[in-house]
Amino acid sequence: MEIKQNKLSSVSFFCPAYNDEKNLPVLVPYVSKFLSEITDTYEIIIVHDGGPDKTGEVADGLATEFPHVRVIHHPKNLGYGVTLRDGFSAAKYDYVMYTDGDNQYDVREFLPNLYLLSDADVLSGYVTKKAASFRRKVQSEVYNWLIRILFFVWCRDIDCAMKIYKRNVLNNIQIKSPSCFIDAEMIIKAKKAGFIVAQFPVTHFPRTEGVASGSKFNVVMDTIRDMIKYRFGAL
After folding, report:
1. Which of 52, 91, 189, 211 could pair with 12 in a Cys bridge, judged by C-beta atoms 3.0 to 4.6 Å apart?
2. Which residues form the domain of 27?
């Protein structure tokens, strides 16, 4: 794995997509242009997690239009954790980058921070100002503190969906969580395995299309369940 003048040897980018039929046509060309600037070898993987809209059809159309794009389809909604796991499993290149499919993050914010990967194994964003409801902000803050207290791992914004993992990290940790706890699980395991996590500030933009589902009661409860199971060695 090499970094030369902010260019990476090869990059797999993936995004989970749910209720994102209007977001993907904006995201994919933007990400494709960005990746072509930072590497000569890349792929874009859309993980379509079921859903009632035309996200899957739109994703297939983009795969036809853009040769670097391929799509993974879930026959039904399997949740964020399973979607991320499938993205990581499908990724084949040296650096694995991901963000959500809803255009609430700007992948170009990786650019001035790529140099950190010269020493770090994981590049993890943290939101300085979250474009979310008061309840969602409180949930996020409480969750981050619970992770710090239960696992003795300090990460400013462990759920931030702007991360890059080096291939050797993914080869040395086993991802199990099917819920939104997956982000925390991976950072905890990476740090405990001795890998270096570098953090950098990112902007969180309001979602303009589609419906967010991260703060739904069942999603929160599944995350808490997996957090407790992992704490007591049952995950």
Report:
1. 91
2. 10-231
